[in-house]
């Protein structure tokens, strides 16, 4: 099946074709590191992690860049409040973000550059825009002249006259047009600055991403992603800068945007006091539950986080891990039958959903259909079918970002000893103590199942 991807630029699903055959260049706008990462950030980066995994499954070689905006008004303000250098704030929350990615089993990108590492490249970029007539030097900075770029507004689908009024753009009496945006900002007292050909100062937000795309991925890329709050002005401005600079269109073949996240029906915001940091979220449910929860929601739509929703996701993901371990144990213990079972049909459905604009809810449904059938037919399967089914389930889990659960020999020995002790206590009718062992194991992520062939234990997320 052909992979089709919704492109914000065209407003349609399009067949996926890359700039270079077999290679995907993908840039996802990273965080401004002035505060801790939250569940909204995790939704966006978990989705693009799935995109990357599926593209690699299909045989593409993916180069992914996630930038770090380490110089920004918010970072500077936070540094001033704490009386420290802006880089201390930026680094603190950059490492917090990296810890969050690791905790949620989101693979780190090949490249994660800081904006401040590309300052010299920004000089080249901005100077070229000035020389081409797309930018001008004003008293308070260097601005991009949006009236010179005919396609301005094509991503956000807003009328040019409306955009020229400067909606959501910093005001300045020195601009030619109200909608012109800063490429370089003149130094202000007490703020960090760099020497530049035009004046001492610091870069504007939009030029940072355009420059890092150009530096690390080249003139044109395949996928540019982020939250849908970045469509305007950030991504609109990136298109203008980059296409004016390189003279090549399109700057990005596919613009992919993830819907915003709500908490119990309300917008997540500091003013409402309902922001859930990534670590606070993990106190409610483990990473695997959050990955499945994100995947059961269509990426372009808003997502509403509720306790009921994450609770259901947790119970569902437990079924997946139980099925994986049941298959493994049945193969290891030779508890199989002689009937055939084909997982290929489930994988076909899974792939069809993933190829249709990364329909992860549909892919999850295909996986869960197989999980349900595994429990009913496991001990009738022949060994070949069981091994193929286990391999297929693991592929699905990998693509959806469900982490692999591992136990070492020491842990396994301890669990076996506790299970044996519990069984001995039950034989002596010391049920209260036996039940306490079961509950303590559950707290440690070990679930016990008593059956005709004894007690079997499962590692759960």
How would you explain this protein's 3D organization?
It is a single chain. This protein is α/β, with parallel strands linked by helices and 461 residues long. It has helices at 39-57, 73-82, 86-103, 119-131, 160-163, 205-217, 231-246, 278-284, 287-295, 307-332, 344-355, 360-377, 383-399, 409-427, 431-443, and strands spanning 4-7, 12-15, 23-28, 61-66, 135-138, 141-144, 181-186, 201-203, 221-227, 252-258, 261-263, 266-267, 303-305, 446-451, 454-459. The protein folds into three domains: 4-267, Rossmann fold (3-Layer(aba) Sandwich), CATH 3.40.50.620; 307-399, Four Helix Bundle (Hemerythrin (Met), subunit A) (Up-down Bundle); 409-459, no CATH class. Helix 1 (39-57) links the parallel strand 3 and strand 4. Helix 10 packs across helix 12 (360-377) and helix 12 packs antiparallel against helix 13. The mean pLDDT is 94.
Order of helices and strands: EEEHEHHHEEHEEHEHEEEHHEHHHHHHEE
Average pLDDT metric: 94
Poorly predicted spans: none
Oligomeric form = single chain
Strand content: 15-25%
SS elements, strand count: 15
Topology:
Layout: E1 4-7, E2 12-15, E3 23-28, H1 39-57, E4 61-66, H2 73-82, H3 86-103, H4 119-131, E5 135-138, E6 141-144, H5 160-163, E7 181-186, E8 201-203, H6 205-217, E9 221-227, H7 231-246, E10 252-258, E11 261-263, E12 266-267, H8 278-284, H9 287-295, E13 303-305, H10 307-332, H11 344-355, H12 360-377, H13 383-399, H14 409-427, H15 431-443, E14 446-451, E15 454-459
Parallel strand pairs: 3-4, 3-9, 9-10, 11-13
Antiparallel strand pairs: 1-2, 5-6, 6-7, 7-8, 11-12, 14-15
Helix pairs in contact: 2-3, 4-6, 6-7, 9-10, 10-12, 10-13, 11-12, 12-13, 14-15
